[in-house]
Design goal:
- By secondary structure, the protein is of the alpha/beta class.
- It has one domain: Class I glutamine amidotransferase (GATase) domain (Rossmann fold, 3-Layer(aba) Sandwich).
- About 25% of the residues lie in helices and about 30% in strands.
- The chain has 5 helices and 13 strands.
- Strands 4-1-5-6-13-12-11-8-9 form a 9-stranded mixed β-sheet, sandwiched between helices.
Length: about 230
């Protein structure tokens, strides 16, 4: 690991993208993730959904962020596709399930963001509600939600008893996977955070902390966990 700046991998997605003279498929990521990692004291490394991700191929990393994005293929948790579920992005599903498996194998600190929390839950055997109301006001518009945080949790150590978060999702956790503990909820009962009790730092949040590059608490906690792992 770098003496002062842990390497934090961040999953990306393949999208048709326009830049310069080009209109091509590219690996893309919202810049807020990069800025938050840098401001928190880490160096970001973008991980595209191509290639083979194993414990060996991510061993150079010190921490991992599974970013937000498209709906997970419901076949991954044994469900039929709901009419409001997006089209499958199996390349990304496969890559991120592999990243989670590899990270857990080598005790890599993990932060799952929105879809990333759902990936963590499904990877460990949980299921999802394929459509809920009230947490996705409009495309590109975030719902500000007050969440209550369970005491004696890693999330409580970072954020305290309660905080306001920015949500943009129409799916949520249904059956929580064995080993995951629910550590925060919205007023309507929607699961807003989980953590893997058997791991030093594996935290998932349903909200989007990368949208506020001034509130770095979660990213700072991830970077600090990466430093502890290397010490």
């Amino acid at each position: 690991m770098s003496a002062s700046k842990p390497l934090i991998g961040i999953s990306t997605y393949l999208e048709r993208t326009r830049f310069g003279h080009w209109d091509v498929e590219a690996a893309v990521l919202y810049r807020g993730y990069l800025d938050c990692v840098v401001k928190a004291g880490g160096n970001p490394v973008m991980l595209p959904p191509v290639g083979t991700w194993t414990a060996e191929t991510i061993a150079f990393l010190d921490g991992l962020v599974i970013a937000g994005g498209a709906d997970i293929d419901p076949a991954a948790y044994g469900a039929e596709k709901h009419e409001k579920t997006g089209e499958p992005r199996r390349d990304r599903d496969d890559a991120e399930f592999a990243l989670v498996e590899a990270a857990l194998k080598i005790d890599l600190p993990v932060l799952g963001v929105c879809r990333g929390m759902q990936v963590l839950n499904v990877a460990l055997g949980g299921t999802l509600h394929q459509h809920i109301e009230g947490h996705n006001p409009a495309p590109g518009v975030f719902e500000h939600t007050e969440i209550e945080i369970v005491g004696d949790s890693r999330l409580h150590d970072v954020l305290g008893d309660a905080t306001t978060v920015q949500c943009h999702h129409h799916q949520s956790l249904d059956r929580v996977a064995d080993g995951l503990r629910v550590t925060a909820a919205a007023p309507d009962g929607t699961v807003e955070a989980v953590e893997l009790e058997s791991a030093p730092f594996v935290v998932g949040v349903q909200s989007h902390p990368e949208q506020d590059t001034e509130d770095l608490r979660l990213f700072e906690a991830l970077v600090e966990a990466a430093r502890r792992r290397a010490s």
